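subagent[fold] <- orchestrator: predict structure for attached chain, return tokens only, no commentary.
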Amino acid sequence: MTESCGILARGNGTTIAYRRTPGKNPGIVFIHGLRSDMNGNKALALEAHCRAEGRAFLCFDLTGHGASSGKFEDGTIGTWAEDVVAALDELTEGPQILVGSSLGGWLMILAALARPQRVVGLMGLAAAPDFTEDLIHAAFSDAQKAELVSQGRVLIDDCYGSEPYAISRGLIEEARSHLVLRAPIDLLQPTVLIQGQRDEDVPWQTALTLADRLNSKQVQVVLHKNGNHRLSEPQDLKLILTNLEHLIYILTLD
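subagent[fold] -> orchestrator:
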């Protein structure tokens, strides 16, 4: 099998950097988190595992992230969801399992709703649906909410030590048309949600709420007592890969 790297040119003028390995289906599509990229520990571990198993794999950078075009501050949930659908349509064939980390966990839901016949399984890693409303905007002070309206952006501290980054008014307001936890989610695919209970960014209860909203009868929530938001330590990666193989096994029974 030959790994390939490339750039997917979109009709809207944007470009998506990607890396993929051919192999058997169902393939695995990894969707990274906010301000991350396709070179994180989880993406690399999944890629190596799929290569060893002879399974198709795809990872890519959302617009405004990594080697893809655009500015992060201009991104919206709708735009990033369109990136995922475009990658699914143009860079994969046959049935796929979406693995979404944090923001990617929200995007995998939106992509599965858009392409229910292509997506056969879901795996959320500290999945953060509706985080713009429930975790960011809800935590803003009155002064920050006023600044968001008047200045169009609010700078927030990066909890991992990087420079502060901007949350735009466009991101917050556009995301309200993509909220998924307010009603049942019409997805029936087998799903695994892995959530660290030491996650300081996404409350572990979010995984339970998402599990409850999904219409699928095959949803497993795996609570990792010592796991943090990144889920990138060796024991986290082992847990992810073990559960991925279990999900694949479940799919072979259908």
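orchestrator: received. Logging for downstream: The radius of gyration is 17 Å. The first strand starts at residue 4 and ends at 9.
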